[in-house]
Design a protein that fits this description.
The structure holds 2 protein chains of 2 kinds.
Chain A (H helix, E strand, L loop, with lengths): L6 H9 L7 E2 L12 E2 L6 E5 L4 E5 L4 H10 L2 E2 L8 H4 L7 H6 L7 H4 L2 H4 E7 L5 E5 L11 H5 L8 E8 L1 E2 L3 E8 L3 H12 L5 E7 L8 E8 L1 H14 L6 E4 L2 H12 L10 E7 L4 H8 L3 E5 L4 E6 L14 E7 L2 H4 L12 H12 L12
Chain B lengths: L5 H4 L2 H11 L5 E2 L2 H4 L16 E3 L4 H14 L3 E4 L16 E4 L6 E5 L4 E5 L4 H8 L4 E2 L12 H7 L6 H4 L6 E7 L5 E5 L10 H5 L8 E8 L1 E2 L4 E8 L2 H13 L6 E6 H11 L8 E8 L2 H16 L5 E4 L3 H12 L1 H8 L1 E4 L9 H15 L3 E6 L7 E5 L6 H18 L18 H4 L2 H14 L13 H8 L1
Helix pairs in contact in B: 2-4, 9-14, 10-13, 14-15
Classes of the chains: A alpha+beta, B alpha+beta.
The structure holds flavin-adenine dinucleotide.
Keywords (chain A): FAD, Flavoprotein
Protein name (chain A): 2-hydroxy-acid oxidase
Pfam families (chain A): FAD_binding_4 (PF01565)
Chain lengths: ~375, ~475
């Protein structure tokens, strides 16, 4: 495993590489099975300006280090990145670059956008070994093409990230969770739609058919100043009363744990089977679950993000034909991975464009080759 | 602009014939008296009528037009409403203007899944208009929203006063139907939150009509807040106002808008619309949203911070009427400055912490160049809009103004910012791209265009320095 300590060292390494580079940050996200190059040596927060709500960090900086620095100033990454370790059984230290490369976004995505929406600048080494920058450290920037977005979620196939910049949000003073128990999937999705379509600024909307106590639970989160949170939680409970009694939980530890449970898909931890992640329009969520006939399901993003636990080795994509969206195979044995692509194959002419971009950024095809096609 | 290609000019008759073969007669405009209508956008200092203009009504018609132009090797300049301030929709004499103005239908509204699908010729404001009766809205709100089209908003990744909270176009765009230069049609994203594969949606948004012609868009819609209320704060120095902005942000409140105006702009708007602003050095309008109680809670905190900066005046709105008056001057600012003289509107972004320094430097440069500047902008995100006043009829004034503008933009880059926060590069800032980006950085962007438009026919003379694209364009 090579572990460059500087951007220049990394650029030299890529330029002189004569075999495929399998890239990892902390290796916690199960993307590359046998990495041979780690970014964990490129660390440090380079600039953090609380008054401008911006932060710049080297790609290998541990996510925890970034979050701790923000916490100390009462700020946070808006998109609530999940921790994949429990779900995948991986160990190691998640890095901020890995978060970006995989565009990892949690429950707050419905309100605050995905990782790519908070990302405002990147530096990366392309497949030629050139160091390229795009964007910067200001919140609004339309100077030239937005390669910043392109790099988010490109899983190392277009370049190796060395530095990432974000816009941030203030961390809220208070949080409340409204809970409705016992709904079936379609009732739950309807309740979620009503809540996120209200003016009460819901920052989390999830449904778990088999909750901690074995029964369905539907969860809604509001965050902000204390009075406002109390008001909105009350209004939501009222709005949802057609669906059953709504309970309001405000205990900071319980509510934090509850959303971590959703974010990290803890309902699947320790259970056997493959894990799929399906992105569809929220009202199609229950159709996805029904079409697949999954063992277990977790709906996040008001139903638009469907986590499925299914029998090992089974390709669910044929079952989902006719439902617009895409399915990613998040957890599976190596034997399954060799049969079923991790990412949903793209139709033409999209596939041709994506392949064209990969060739332009990585003409020798040495960066995580084969991963996204 | 580059010299028009004589080879293209000479085949006008054949081209018009072929275009008429795929479009209704009134959708192909080639009479020089009529093509004049397309000779410029809102950057009116530059004008050039196109070879011809076409106004297709569907994605299929757009595809047919592009196929022909691709076949004939004719450059195409996409056009929405022509309100670009960067010359993005400026034609060349050898190009076809492809206007999407006739494509303005709402295709689908889905409140449960919170999206609207429209043809991109639809104006920004009428997208919100289509969902207003159900209390929903489309968040990005450029000041030009009455006129500008979603097509241009996507191409420029436009922002607005409220993007501090809601983000700019790219954060609210879920999917597009786009026609490639060769006439093939791609669907990217849709009603689901995350498009799969590489983030092509993010790449297309802000690509200034150089990667494809976007004909339909799926946009996120949101429920309107219960209410909103602005406060007006007047200060006797720009530094203090800048510091106040920074302190508000640090305090953990997230207003929907923090707008800034300086003395020249305040005076101009007073003379124009008489909004009743205090005569002061600088003025902030801060708006928050929510229920009454929530608004009070946030405003209390904001006013507390403002008081620590010795404001000349704090004016809290107590009625819808007062709110409208607070916004009136800000919303008329560009018009007010336009009454004094011609102006050039810049759009650089800087780190918020650099506001006081940059405002001071702009003031100093204003004296050096002998041209008046007014500043009115989105302070919360550091997106500045210096308006440089000049006299278009006075020989040499435009040139001095452009030099001055370039110096301001270089200053923005120098302090860690960028050339343009929401208006785009177009032709206006094309030659400054080297200030912000090294050659490899630009090359990486050019290679993206190579993928989408290998012949370099779509809006080819924009965004990048002409000598950097010369070989590709010929
Ligand atoms: C008074 C005034 C105030 C303004 N305020 C703001 C503001 O607050 N925020 C802001 O961001 N901007 C603002 N603008 C700038 C301008 O309104 C925006 O850039 C707007 O998005 C342009 O939209 P349009 O439809 O007029 O596009 P056009 O001017 O017609 O075109 C703009 C660009 O889009 C490309 N394009 C057009 N249609 C398509 C298509 N179908 N497919 C691909 N590319 C296409 C064009 O080639 C061109 O490069 C303002 C302009 C004015 C005149």
């Amino acid at each position: 495993m090579r572990r460059p300590e500087t951007e220049t060292e990394l650029a030299d390494l890529v330029a002189s590489a004569d075999a495929p580079l399998q890239i990892c940050g902390g290796g916690t996200r199960g993307v590359v099975a046998e990495p041979n190059i780690s970014l964990a040596g490129l660390t440090g927060i380079e600039r953090y300006e609380p008054g401008a709500l911006t932060l710049v960090a080297k790609a290998g900086t541990p996510l925890a280090e970034v979050e701790a620095a923000l916490d100390a100033e009462g700020q946070r990454l808006p998109f609530e990145p999940m921790d994949h370790r429990g779900l995948l059984g991986t160990t190691g230290t998640p890095t901020i670059g890995g978060v970006v490369a995989a565009n990892v976004s949690g429950p707050r995505r419905i309100q605050a956008g995905a990782c790519r929406d908070s990302l405002i600048g990147v530096r990366f080494v392309d497949g030629r070994g050139d160091v390229i920058k795009n964007g910067g450290r200001v919140m609004k920037n339309v100077t030239g093409y937005d390669l910043v977005k392109l790099m988010a979620g490109s899983f190392g196939t277009l370049g190796v990230l060395t530095e990432v910049s974000f816009k941030l949000l203030p961390a809220p003073e208070a949080r409340a969770v409204v809970l409705v128990n016992g709904l079936d999937d379609s009732q739950a999705i309807s309740a979620l739609a009503r809540a996120v379509g209200s003016s009460f600024e819901v920052s989390g909307a999830a449904h778990v058919p088999v909750g901690v106590d074995g029964h369905p639970v539907t969860m809604f989160r509001v965050e902000g100043f204390a009075q406002s949170v109390a008001y909105r939680a009350g209004q939501l409970a009222e709005l949802l009363k057609d669906y059953g009694e709504a309970l309001i939980e405000t205990d900071p530890e319980k509510t934090a744990a509850g959303w971590k449970w959703v974010r990290d898909v803890e309902a699947f931890h320790g259970l056997p089977g493959d894990v799929w992640r399906v992105s569809v329009k929220p009202s199609d969520g229950p159709r996805v679950a029904a079409a697949v006939g999954a063992e277990r399901v977790v709906y996040d993003w008001a139903g638009g993000l469907v986590w499925l636990l299914v029998d090992e080795g089974r390709d669910i994509r044929p079952d989902l034909q006719g439902i617009a969206g895409h399915a990613t195979l998040v957890r599976a044995a190596a034997s399954t991975r060799s049969q079923i692509a991790m990412f949903q194959p793209e139709p033409e002419p999209l596939a041709r464009i994506s392949a064209g971009l990969r060739t332009q950024f990585d003409p020798r095809g040495i960066l995580n080759p084969g991963l996204m096609r | 602009m580059p010299v028009p290609d004589a080879r293209v000019m000479s085949k006008k008759a054949r081209l018009v014939d072929r275009l008429r073969g795929v479009l209704p007669e009134d959708a192909v405009i080639h009479d020089p008296a009529e093509t004049r209508a397309y000779e410029c956008d809102a950057l009116t200092a530059y004008k050039c009528p196109p070879l011809c203009a076409v106004l297709p009504s569907s994605t299929e018609e757009v595809a047919a037009v592009l196929k022909i132009c691709h076949d004939e090797d004719v450059p195409v300049v996409p056009r929405g409403a022509g309100t670009s301030l960067a010359g993005g929709a400026l034609p060349t004499a050898d190009s076809v203007i492809l206007g999407v103005a006739r494509m303005n239908e709402v295709l689908e509204v889905d409140y449960d899944n919170r999206f609207i699908r429209v043809q991109t010729g639809r104006t920004n404001l009428s997208v919100s208009g289509a969902v207003e009766e159900n209390d929903f809205f489309y968040a990005p709100d450029p000041s030009s929203q009455l006129a500008c089209a979603i097509a241009g908003n996507i191409a420029m990744n436009s922002g607005g006063a409220h993007c501090l909270k809601y983000g700019v176009t790219t954060n609210n765009l879920m999917g597009v139907t786009m026609v490639m230069m060769d006439g093939s049609v791609v669907e990217i994203g849709g009603a689901h939150l995350d498009a799969g594969g590489l983030d092509l949606l993010g790449l297309i948004c802000g690509s200034e009509g150089q990667l494809g012609v976007v004909t339909e868009a799926t946009l996120r819609i949101l429920r309107k807040p219960e209410g909103a209320r602005p406060v007006l704060m007047a200060f006797d120095s720009n530094e203090v106002a800048g510091q106040c902005v920074s302190d508000i942000i640090k305090a953990g409140v997230l207003p929907v808008a923090i707008e800034f105006m300086d003395r020249p702009v305040i005076r101009a708007t007073e003379a124009f619309v008489g909004a009743g602003y205090p005569d002061c050095e600088s003025l902030l309008i801060v708006e928050v949203e929510g229920s009454d109680a929530e608004i009070n809670e946030q405003l209390e905190l904001i006013l507390e911070i403002a008081r620590q900066h010795n404001p000349v005046e704090l004016r809290e709105s107590t009625s819808a009427d007062e709110s409208a008056r607070i916004w009136l001057g800000r919303k008329s600012a560009f018009g007010a400055m336009g009454r004094i003289n011609d102006y050039m509107c810049l759009d650089g972004t800087i780190p918020v912490s650099e506001l006081p320094y940059v405002l001071r430097r702009i003031g100093e440069m204003s004296e050096e160049f002998g041209l008046l500047v007014g500043n009115v902008f989105h302070a919360g995100d550091g997106n500045m809009h210096p308006l440089i006043l000049y006299d278009a009829n006075k020989p040499g004034d435009l040139e001095i103004c452009e030099k001055f503008g370039a110096e301001i933009l270089k200053l923005c880059v120098e302090v860690g910012g960028c050339l343009t926060g929401e208006h785009g590069v177009g032709i206006e800032k094309r030659d400054l791209m080297n200030v912000q980006y090294a050659e490899v950085d630009l090359e990486a962007q050019l290679r993206v265009k190579d993928v989408f438009d290998p012949k370099w026919l779509l809006n080819p003379s924009k965004v990048f320095p002409l000598d950097a694209t010369k070989e590709r364009r010929s």
